[in-house]
Design a protein that fits this description.
The chain is built from nine helices and no strands. The protein starts with 13 loop residues before the first helix and ends with a helix. The chain is globular.
Length: 229
């Protein structure tokens, strides 16, 4: 069975039974709050959310599937900055890899210079982890109904018409995230089942199909909402 990002996983835990509108408000709010607190709080929340994920029965592979975009982004960002620092050092005639003490000093200086980047990545990781918990403990229908409850409550307080137009549009956008991941995983499975191998040829063949399927699903969802309203 493939692990798709932000896909719902059936369960009977407290978070699974908790109304979706509460999770939509509380969990992201906690993450955003920790985004503005010192990094130690974000690290603590990451540890707590990892523990909660294991208690909920989410495997390491499932958690990695959700957090993979942030991990890849962190590797790419830090890799580019490290490459730039090495290029500058070489242009200055510093061949630090010939001397361990110079290499260690260079590496420590790089870590210190990228401290703010590291803190940002940690907090981004924390927010992504919170979003994954919401998606994994709520079905697409529950998320849509939760958003409707929130919007209708706000409209009632502001004495506006009882139409959840914003919630419907937002639900389509949010719930399309796990569907996109699922479409890509299915396309790769079909490619490999026919003897295809990962590489540039796979991307050239699958990307047009991937976008075509996604556009069709988005069109059908938009039509279903327009008929419903």
């Amino acid at each position: 069975m493939t692990n798709t990002s932000f896909s719902y996983k059936q369960g009977t835990s407290f978070l699974h039974r908790c109304p979706a509108w509460i999770k939509i408000i509380v969990i992201p709010l906690i993450s955003v709050l920790f985004f503005y607190l010192p990094p130690a709080f974000a690290v603590g929340l990451i540890a707590l959310q990892t523990l909660v994920s294991f208690v909920l029965g989410f495997t390491v592979r499932e958690q990695f599937a959700d957090l993979r975009p942030v991990i890849y982004y962190a590797i790419f960002l830090l890799g580019v900055k490290l490459f730039g620092s090495v290029a500058v050092a070489v242009s200055d005639g510093i061949f630090f890899w010939l001397n361990f003490s110079q290499f260690f000093s260079f590496f420590c200086d790089f870590i210190k210079s990228e401290k703010e980047t590291g803190v940002l990545l940690i907090k981004l990781f924390c927010v992504m982890q919170s979003a994954a918990i919401v998606f994994k403990t709520s079905t697409s229908l529950q998320i849509r109904e939760g958003l409707e409850i929130i919007e209708l409550t706000v409209r009632r307080l502001l004495h506006l018409s009882a139409k959840a137009n914003i919630a419907d549009a937002l639900a389509v956008f949010i719930c399309f995230i796990p569907q996109v991941s699922k479409n890509w995983q299915q396309a790769k499975l079909a490619w490999r089942a026919r003897g295809g191998k990962s590489g540039l040829k796979m991307l050239i063949v699958l990307l047009p199909v991937f976008f075509s399927v996604g556009m069709k699903q988005a069109y059908n969802s938009a039509r279903a909402i327009s008929v419903r309203n």
